[in-house]
Each structure stands twice: as C-alpha cells, then as structure tokens.
Amino acid sequence: AKLNPAELLPAVQCLSFGPQAGGGECCLLQLEPGLCAELEAGRSLVIRGEKDEHAVLCSKDKTYDMKIADTSNMLLFVPGCKTPEELNADAASCNIIHSQIAGFSKNYWELRRRRPKLKKLRKLLMEDPYEGPDSQKDQTSTFSKYTTEDLLSLIQASEEEILHQLQVIDACKIEGYWRVLDFDYEMKLLNHVTQLIDSESWPLSKVPLCACLEELGSLEPREMIEHILLSYGRKYVDAGEVFFEMREDKICRAIAQMLLQNAVKFNLSEFEEVWQQSVPEGMTTRLDQLQGLALVDRSSRPETIFLLKVEDLPEDNQERFNSLFGIRQKWTEVDITPYIQDLCAEKQTVGALLTKYARSSMLNGVKVYNSRRPIS
Amino acid sequence: MVQIIVSSSVTGALAQWVLVELQGEVEPRQSGDLAGSLLGDLHYTCEGVPVLIVGHHILYGKVVQLEKPFAVLVKQGGAPQPSPAGPHGHYTVTALIKTKLLFKTRPKPIITHVPKKV
Question: Which chain A residues touch B34 with a CB distance below 8 Å?
C-alpha cells in the first residue's frame, strides 16, 4: 500500500504505551443513556451486592445489572488524542505530537437496566411490624430497626426506588426508623376512622384532618391517625383546610384481606355477602379490587376464594412461575396477570413473559397457560 | 453488603479521552512489557479518515461517535473500611470516552519498492 503525504493533515500523533499501561488498574464501564450526564454533573454511582449476589450498579434512581463483555479487539485508551476536527482547529500547532496510551483492555463492563430487588425491603420491615404505642414489644424488641441509610446498604436498588417502594407499602418513619404497621393495628386505626366518618356523616370524599385528629387523638397517636388517612385517602386542600378523599378500592381490599386471612378458603358467594356488609356505608365491593391479593376458583363446586398475595411469591421470574404453576396447573391470562405484572422489565409486556415462561393451550375454548416443564 | 462508590475526583469537566480499537493483539517487538514502547504513528487524511502506521503496516480506520460512551475507572487502593454500612472501595472516574477510532480493515504492508516488470 502506498500513502500519499499530500492527502494527509500535517500533524502526526506518535502513540506509545505509557509507563502504567500494562498495569490493569484501569477498566472501562459502558454507560447507559443518562449515566454519562450524571457523572458529568458530579454525581456518583454505587455498585452494591452481598458476596453471594450478582453486583448491581445504582444511580440516584435506577438499577442496572453488571456484566463483563469480552471483545476480541484491543481497546486502547488515549488521553489527549486529537480528532481531525481538533487538529484542524489548531492548525498552527507543532506537527509531531507525542501521545501516551494510558491503558488497554480486551473487555468492558456492560450495564443492563433491571427492576430493583425490593422484596428484601418488605422482608426486613416485616421482621418487626409496629403494633402501636401500647405494645410491649417495642421496648424489648431485639430486632434491628432500619434507617434510610441502613436500607441503602442492604437493598440492591437506587435510593429513589427504595423511597418509592416505602411509599407503596405504606411504611412510615417512627423515631427515625422505617416501620410497616402490623396488619391488625392498621385495621384498628382504619376502623376508628371509618366509624368516625359514619357517626359524623361526612362524605367519603371530604374527610377533615383536623376533626379526625381532635376526635381520635385521645385513642391513638396523632401521627398514626394522619398516617392511616394518608395511606387510605388522597390528601387535598380546600379553602385552607386539609381533607382526604377516601380510597374506596383500597379500603375494600384491606377489609377483604382481614376476612380472608382467617381461613384457608371461603365459599365465594358467602364471602361476597359478608364482605359487602363489612365495608363502610356507601362503598361497593368488586372482585377486581382483589387483584394480586386473592384468587377465585371457578372450577370448584361451590366456587371458592382464597388469599394469595403476590408479595409472598418469589421475586425471581422462573421461581415465580414455578410457584404459580404449583398452585394451579392452568391459568387464564386474566387470572395470572396480577401475579406476574411486577416482573415486567422496562417495555416488557405480560404477553412476552408468558411466551417465555409458559406454554399455551386451549381448554373449553379458552386460552390457558401452563408450565413449560413438569412441576413436582 | 459491599458498596463501591464510582465517582469522579475532580469538580468541573471530566477529561475526554479517545478509544483506539484494533483487531487482534498488539505484541511488543522485543520481549517484555508494552509499557514505554512505541505503538505507531496516527495520521488523518484531509477527509478525516484516521490512518495508523504500526511497524511496516498501514491500518485505515474510521472515527465513530459512541452511542454509549465509556467511563474509564481506576480502582483506588487502600484497605477497605471496617464499617459495614460505609463504602468498601472506590473507583475514580478518570475520564469519559465518547469517540473511538476503529481500525478493522486488514493491515496493509507498506512496500517501498515495487519491482518493474521486465
């Protein structure tokens, strides 16, 4: 081959390996969109994991799996290596530039966005649910209590994902520690509020905070009354006063859980009757309020319903499907969706999950899904 | 749990480096490390095509703007802190790489003397 000097720019960069080059102390991290900007803004990323877990990388609000990608090529990193544009802009510069290669690698860290591993969060907080100020347990409790910092050092997720999940599970901060309420205590608080709404004949969409705190403050701590209103209502301000629009679906769902947890399963029609009678005046119960909480068995005679909470099921995709197929051999898409929805990665659909982890067939004219492998 | 912080040590703009990607291996002419050895000369044509001369070979490449930039991380040495919650290590982001020079054509030997046909 020949090279015509007339076709070349005047400057030449002589590349040589720097003294540290073979050291292997440098490594490359491929950045997903947004991460580059984070680093340039001076923010840090954190790699987290227990010794027996795969490492994840967390930004302020996202979590990524880390994997080494091998390339058969040599990747050399050259500080100050100039591109043609930079050379053209600097036309008067010295024609021979000596540049050092700072390091080289045949592989790099690759990132893939993943859903945060938050099941551990619920597990940690459920070690010691808050049973109210009168409970003897808190004083003598030997269980750990967790601050935000503690959680960050134990959960493979970003800070924002953790804080968001704490809100989703209605956790509250008591004396600086994150706590979830013991379910019975939670129902006791809810009951105080719904009874008060009934006796005061307040509309469910306009429950005044101040009056609640005044009337119930002698029975329960004010923070707990406000917490239960925040958990089961939507806060808004009207003419300078704080009100709550009570969340019918959430209240009905909680009452259903309270009824269902007392037995293995219930006669469906009996349950529906008792359930409707147990919810506050003006609220209507519907089975779709129980998605991810209870499962109806329409093949049994009589039809039955039983408690099945999605948060009690495994977090790993394959284990989740194994567990679900162990409970019921064949599922319709409608029935299984609430129990696999949370597994969907960014832009992944329930349909895609079913294609990957299940096999479909027709049963009495209806499409059903079963396991791809035998379940013992 | 192990927590390793990845952050830059400087305030202000991060250094921008360039990646040079070569096919295969680079070996030193003499035995020993690559450290200190010359790799070759990097030229650009007037059209901006990078040309690398390594030994008596010419490699033609192209300038690629990386869709996913790289961060160059250097591990900070030192004993890990005993605190269970505190960071257990630190990778410093030394530079960002947003551009690479990709050389994937077969190197062509430079022939200085072409014998004439008799």
Answer: 17, 21-22, 104
